[in-house]
């Protein structure tokens, strides 16, 4: 171990105060509360500059799969690093990227064999939208420019993804610069611990039928997050909803874009939701868990039919003019390949199923059983625990997250909803610890500031 520098945290804290601007963070709150500097990670645990450890209940913003500092992933990364850290994929290829493409095609639905790389989830979605848009022009149907999206959707923070997203609180002010999208209400599904309390997709499908009857000829694509809208606060969809939507898109000649940036790679159970439901989308967007939380890498998978529409002589200008500098970075590709192999192994020998069962049991016991949370949603390795209604200004969710840190847990709140998203390899003991500390922190915060109504 390196010798302890007594004032280290103080020093970086001062620098953070002067230089840092953190994403999705009200910086006045950030300045007012004790700041935390994560220095290293080991398995599901994060260590701060003071040597305290915290369970990573947020999977480092929904990305971590095999824990931190995983020896296999490290070896894959170092092995690639010793060959080359980056080489462009604009007109060139590298074997690591090509091998990853084959691997991705093997886990994807059969028809998705073409892989277009980028470096984050927003870009993976932008690329799918632009490919769909350009496809219809190349296919002689330039009038197909419309897009359908779900209420509550989140697809990223760039202008294209904000346009199809519906995170009013995050993006509403930018709407004058966004392109229009037709909206379908998200279906209703209340499910936790394997128990379905409510499930209704009729209003969504009725609206979709209306829209398609009226506008299919001018609609390029429908985009959705299958099974769970993560950033909307873990809004679940009934199983089978995706299949219904997919069938309607297919019949209407409208591309289906699936954003599995969050739900992919075992997060909600299966490797990919589309394959689990037997749905073959026209575009599949992957990021977050793709590199197990190691490096920025994203992929947009599509069909041979889409790919072929872009072929032609150079001077026809049919090529897809989109590419980011670090697109398909080999370090990320090497880690992604190893990570997928490790997920496959966990699924094959039953470890993944055991983790899912332990997580579900803990949600039943602590989430529903504690009586602290009026609403609990859960599927796979994700859960949303809604705190009792309090005025926004009380910042109850933030207070619980800050309190949880004192008990060795990193948890993230979306407003007054606590989101639980652990690494896929979390152990039964760690799951117990996570929910124990989260309910304890919640109790402390709720007791300290009783509801103004006394309810
Ligand atoms: C996080 C997320 C994105 C955006 O990915 P970034 O890598 O943050 O750009 C897109 N879609 C979904 C469903 C996400 O959860």
From TrEMBL:
Marked site positions, Participates in the substrate recognition with KAPA and in a stacking interaction with the adenine ring of SAM: 24
Residues involved in substrate binding: 154, 288, 323, 412
E.C. designation(s): 2.6.1.62
One GO BP: biotin biosynthetic process
Binding residue positions for pyridoxal 5'-phosphate: 121-122, 259, 324-325
Known partners and oligomeric status: Homodimer.
Protein name according to UniProt: Adenosylmethionine-8-amino-7-oxononanoate aminotransferase
Organism listed in the record: Ruficoccus amylovorans
